[in-house]
Amino acid sequence: MKHVFSVLLWLISLGAFAQQPELRGQVIDATTNAPLPGATIQATGNRGAAANEQGQFTLRVGAGETITVSSVGYTTQRVVVPAGGTLTIALQPGENLLDNVVVVGSRSSSRTVLNSAVPVDVLPMGTLQRTLPQNDLNQLITYVAPSFQSNRQSSSDGTEHIDPASLRGLGPDQTLVLVNGKRRHTTSLLNNQGTFGNGTVGTDLNAIPVSAIERIEVLRDGASAQYGSDAIAGVINIVLKKNTNALEQQLTGGITKVGDGKLLRYNANYGTGLGTKGGFLNVSLEAYTREATTRTQNHNLLLFDQSAQGNFFAYDFTDNPAASRAIDDQILAQRGLSRDDFNFHVGDAGIKNANLFANLSLPLANGKGEFYAFGGYNYRRGEGYGFRRLPSSPNQMVYSIFPNGFQPNTLSDIQDRSIAAGLRYRLGEWQMDLSNTLGNNRFDFGVSNTVNASLQQRSPTEFKAGGHAFTQNTVNLDFSRYLKGVANGLNLALGAEFRAEQYRIRAGQEESWRNYGLQTAPNGEVTNPSGLAGGAQSFIGFSPANAGTFGRQNVALYADTELDLTRRWLVSAAGRFENYTDFGSTFNYKLASRYTVTEGFNLRGAFSTGFRAPSLHQQHFSYVSTTILSNGRLGNTGFFTNDSPLAQALGVPKLAQETSRNLSLGFTLRPSSQFSLSVDAYRIRVENRIVLTGLFGFDPFGEPVPAIQNLLLPFEASGARFFANAINTTTQGIDVVATSQNTLGQGRLNATLSANLNRTLADDQFNVPARLEGQEDVFFSPNERGLIETVNPRQKINLLLTYSLGRFSATLANIYFGEVTRNGFPFGPVQTFGGKVVTDVSVSYNLLKNLTLTAGANNLLNVYPDAQAYGNSYFGVFKYAPVQMGMNGASYFVRITSVLGKQK
């Protein structure tokens, strides 16, 4: 460790020797001369600053260097630094997000959203964080980017603690996430509880504090040829803050209209300069606690004789139980009980979250490069709800502990760690970037308020159920160069990547997974004379048979070029070769072009091939438990790996890569400085898409299938699920973004209308192994089809209005979430939930120069999804499904923001 500190001190001392003039300046509105706080000033070598409340900034740059100055709602300018060391930059109103300089999707340093060959959204997180009601990153992006969708799940084990997300209607594992242009690791959680993203592994965006983010770039186009596996739907690049000499703090309190879900959130960001040549260290802290919500409807009880235990109550299975309510209430009163003793809790999990993130740059003394590093630590503790166990289910009960039944709690203990470090250096005409990025996600499960019924009165009521971890280490070596003499300019980028990954499953304590009532007869047959269920109710722990450590490596080579054939015509091409130790090699390419028809009107289009390697989770996840089947016999059911003898007996092949073809066509239009429009249509074809199968051994209604049961018999299994390259899908859609900035009275009105229209369909022909022909409805079930085709809104439209006048600003957003369709749970009807409009509002006022108060509401009009059909509501418990915008209704917030010091 002392050597690490020595290296850091040496680098800092190098920076201290570098003497370079300090540029002091101010950014103002060209029409009103008003300062523009938050304006971004960017120089080469990752050096930058942000203007303070007076529009002032300080930056170490040399005379003759070119800086880029931008601000939301204004035209970006590139300015040559004068010799005098002072500068005033007047930006013209009218710029929109189409004109922001972007990093993702282009390795050129001069591309903007407007002149790029593929669609990119730029989300200014500093502004959004201060004004919008949403608090975590997933929800913020959902409410401002129509092509992105994420909502919280309920009663779904780990998935209610890490939110799955979608870009352009594809799965969570088909979007690649970058931080400062470097690959971000995924979580260790594999979603497997029948929610959106079932069978996939995503990236936990909420592990990054919002206060650490300068902006987010969303590349809405296939980019596997540029960035590698997972980029079928696109890329999300999170750009961290670089500002210095200011402490920004924010405190938010919130509550739902019902009175639950209380939120208390604190975040802070501080930056300090290092050395004398523009070095910096920017640190962000976030901590919040969010209480659980519950949205169940009043349920009814039905008289049920369990006199041996003295329990008389069971859940009502009738559609009209009103006739029994009076009788039930009378009996409950006689026993000193009420309906509250049998309540179900269904809603968002309670979360406690703490984040720490840092971003570092140390320019070298010779001015040819910089050492950089960034990363952070996230800890999250969650408590969610399992299904209630009723006293009328004796095989699940320990009446001496829970005489009236119980509702288990699913506990999460999640740690997420990342660190990236690298060196950018100029080698003649080439820019070199050598980096190493290490990330780890660890998820430990707990279960409380529950029992292992096979232990009866000896059972604990809280269990450590084991967990999983995923580690990824990525080494990148990149070279880029701009050649002025080739046509109108050529940007050339070459690179190599080495990635090592490890996935691990850890067993829980023995009581969490073992059935202590099993007996083995002399003939070897295993029986359960007591009929009591084993393992922790609600979440059976991982057993030693599930545990293991698995790894793989990947090597990639890529080339990425952008050629301006003329001043108006840009063409680009990229190719990437990758080799995985666990499934082989692949080569993918991308071609794109943009043509400027007239000033302000661009046509653009792209075609690319893509791929996604099956994750280690999908290849090695195993979760098998002994359960009582519908025929009363014991059987091992659960998830089996594709290389298991059981999979081979059924003819289930090993997993292969998903492949894709992505076509996009669109245009950008800016007829004036006050208005801009972009329209992009796309078609994404994914072949050999990996899905989670149904339970083989049974038909879709839970009845045994003798032919399959006979195949499973030698393996002592009664039901088995696998991952399979089961289907081919086609996704088609269109994205529209229109922005307008106008003077209204003495103030300014900014408006953004954005929309995503999207449809994903699976082919009717499945990739079914020969031995499983006739089992198509299990191999790719109607429920799985619904989770891919219709569980996300096919239409999403966002109208965002922001008005500012002096110290006052107000934001109004109306978001339309289109209809969604869900298959029944567990065997209810297919149900379509109608489209809904959610209205958000917030008002901000600068109490002092550096102190702002904001108040507002999410879902101001208290809109809920359509109520579930009775057959889908688990006998009336789940009144609302977690679809579209979630099921919490209205919530309110108050936020205070302070800035101490002068940002540079």
Automatic annotation (TrEMBL):
Family: Belongs to the TonB-dependent receptor family.
Domain TonB-dependent receptor-like beta-barrel: 372-860
Subcellular localization(s) per the UniProt record: Cell outer membrane
Protein name, per record: TonB-dependent receptor
Signal peptide: 1-18
Predominant place of localization: membrane
Keyword terms, alphabetized: Cell outer membrane, Membrane, Receptor, Signal, TonB box, Transmembrane, Transmembrane beta strand, Transport
Boundaries of every TonB-dependent receptor plug domain copy: 115-235
Organism: Rudanella paleaurantiibacter
Region (Disordered): 150-169
Gene Ontology, cellular component aspect: cell outer membrane
Gene3D superfamilies assigned: Carboxypeptidase-like, regulatory domain, TonB-dependent receptor, beta-barrel domain, TonB-dependent receptor, plug domain
Membrane topology according to the record: Multi-pass membrane protein
